[in-house]
Amino acid sequence: MATIELLRSRPPSRVGLGWAFFERQTNLWKRYWAWEVVWLVYGVVNTLAITFIANEASRSGTVSKGELSRLTMFLLIGTLVWAYMSAVLDDMSLTVMWERWEGTIEHTLMAPVPRVVHLVGMSAFGILHAFIRTSLIMACALPFFQVDLGNADWATAAAVVAVGSISLIGLGILASILPLLYPERGEQMSFMVQALVLLVSGVYYSVDVLPGWLQVASHVSPATYLLRGIRDALLNGSSVSNQAGALAILAVFGLVLVPASLLVFGVAERWAKKTGRLKRQG
Amino acid sequence: MNIPEARPLAPADQEVAVGRRPVPLEVSNLTKTFRHKRLASLAPRKKAKKPPRAALDNVSFTVQTGEIYGILGANGSGKSTLIRILSTLLLPDGGTVHVFGHDVVKEPGKVRPMLNRVSADPSFFRPMSAMENLLFFGRAYGMSGPEVRRRSAEILTRLGLGDEHAREPMLHLSRGQQQKVAVARAFLSSPRLMLLDEPTTGLDPRSKREVQGFVAEVRRESQVTILLTTHDMDEAEQLCDRIGFLSGGELVAEGTPLELRKQVAAGRPLDEVDMEAVFIELTGRSIEEDENEDQQAEGGA
């Protein structure tokens, strides 16, 4: 009996604590299934609307028939990667916002869960959620287009997504800080951050078309390397070894962004505690 | 009716338990001031801003093991500010708070496993069922899924809620039922210090009696220490061993209900002196006056 109690009196495992957040988000996801359908439909329509631009370019003679498949793939990859990235960033920015809406923020933040574990649990759900949603969008959108995937290196694309997702977690944690600091306008401010990433990262065009000063900004966005790596893998069949440089840059982004964002979140949380912002909305 | 057994102490607490026994709650010279928020507006600024107002002003008190200590005051008197500081959600400007010897500002990680809280507003993830909510909060306190389910069922049954209620989304439950789930959430982790922040506000008389009965029963059967904030005089007198009057952020009087009555009786029989009269006499104002004057204090938070 004493042994059992000693075992039970050990501090709870971090995996178990992180699982609390993953499981909670899954339960919320199930309950809000109608919203999920809405976002899925929106994602599919958005993907189709943007990718059909390639067909128009072909019809009007702007691109040749031979280049149609490549342009279609270029736009398709852009919309899908953006759907994935914005889903991760949205889920992470909801870390604080959702708790404020429901009024649970005080109960959650006073629970004995290290903030790192809390945010990692939320990120794990965000990544899986975004991956499933994007896969469904892709499955729905692909039949509308004739694309040549014979040359695609899916393993390399998967490696780029896996490594790039770590830096997205860092960006997501940074996005979640704004609603922590600004209870009423924080969510809108996080949309602004997303819009800037969209502008400079070459989602629907090559970053080469940007003005020089915006091209500089594109270098500090991990999304630029994520998109470039996936496009190279799927359009040109680039192998993992060919993408070693992009993977290394993405890894460095992840290694810097995740600890830095956790540090900034900690500072922001302390400031919110000092000014009384850790409370429900309304 | 058996209380769910207490969960074993964390190693740090076992260490403390075998040595000297620190008091559950020690508040010393606690001060917190909020600056008034300026609303974002394009209109020109007219007047100089109001001076900051102290939500808590040099508040000191101690709560002993197994005691129910009541903080009585109007809305805006500083009760919620006090509870939020104790909950490690708000940093004080001055003074200290120790929970079982641990500083809430310097050692929040050691304080958090030992306390839990019921708020006036039962805040939950409303689309999720009661059990899904309890699973989340139980796991966040390091409990396993089966352990949460077992203890939740025990506590909810004692509060008059059955399995069918546990499976319902929170938004389908009445206000009273939601508050009972909030009580279950708080007692689930077997806290050693329970913060009850106006736990019966807005409840119908029956639900109020049931929650008060549960609190009294848990106190009788376990060594949990309770800090109860309320503006309900009868509730404070019925449940609390000692009461402190908080008015305008200051703790203006404290003592047992009997001691407080004696202070203002002035020769009258004690049963003719109700707690409302004691509050007015010792604070110099009624609960309603306090409420009107101090509403802004915590709004600035």
Structural description of this entry:
The complex is a heterodimer of chains A (282) and B (301). With 282 residues, chain A is mostly helical. Chain A has one domain (17-275). Chain A has helices spanning 2-8, 14-31, 33-59, 65-102, 105-109, 115-141, 154-181, 186-200, 212-219, 222-236, 244-275. Chain A is globular, with a radius of gyration of 21 Å. The model of chain A is unreliable at 1-8 (pLDDT under 50). Chain B is an alpha/beta fold and 301 residues long. Chain B has a domain at 56-122 and 191-299: Rossmann fold (3-Layer(aba) Sandwich). Helices cover 40% and strands 20% of the residues of chain B. Chain B has twelve helices and ten strands. In chain B, strands 6-7-8-3-9-10 form a six-stranded mixed sheet, with helices on both faces. Chain B is globular. In chain B, 47% of the residues are buried. Mean pLDDT of chain B is 85; it is low at 1-12 and 293-301. At the A-B interface, helix 2, helix 5 and helix 11 of A face helix 4 of B.
Layout of helices and strands:
The complex is a heterodimer of chains A (282) and B (301).
Chain A lengths: L1 H7 L5 H18 L1 H27 L5 H38 L2 H5 L5 H27 L12 H28 L4 H15 L11 H8 L2 H15 L7 H32 L7
Helix pairs in contact in A: 2-6, 3-4, 3-6, 4-6, 4-7, 4-8, 4-10, 6-7, 7-8, 7-10, 7-11, 10-11
Chain B lengths: L10 H8 L6 E10 L18 E11 L4 E5 L6 H8 L7 E6 L2 E2 L4 H4 L3 E4 L11 H11 L4 H14 L4 H5 L7 H14 L4 E5 L7 H17 L3 E6 L2 H7 L2 E6 L2 E6 L1 H9 L9 H9 L3 H13 L2
Parallel strand pairs in B: 3-8, 3-9, 6-7, 7-8
Antiparallel strand pairs in B: 1-2, 1-4, 4-5, 9-10
Helix pairs in contact in B: 4-5, 4-7, 5-7, 10-11
How do you describe this structure in short?
With 282 residues, chain A is mainly α. In chain A, 78% of the residues lie in helices and 0% in strands.
Quantity of strands of chain A, as a count: 0
Q: Biggest sheet of chain B: strands side by side, in what order?
A: 6-7-8-3-9-10
Name given to the CATH homologous superfamily of the domain at 56-122 and 191-299 in chain B:
P-loop containing nucleotide triphosphate hydrolases
| CATH architecture field of the domain at 56-122 and 191-299 in chain B | 3-Layer(aba) Sandwich
Any low-confidence stretches of chain B, pLDDT <50, length ≥5? 1-12, 293-301
**Category from helices, strands and their pairing of chain B:** alpha/beta
Distance between the termini of chain A: 48 Å
* Residue fraction in strands of chain A: under 5%
Q: So what's the oligomer here?
A: heterodimer
The largest β sheet of chain B comes out as: 6 strands, mixed
Rounded radius of gyration of chain A (Å): 21 Å
Please provide the ordered H/E string of secondary-structure elements of chain A.
HHHHHHHHHHH
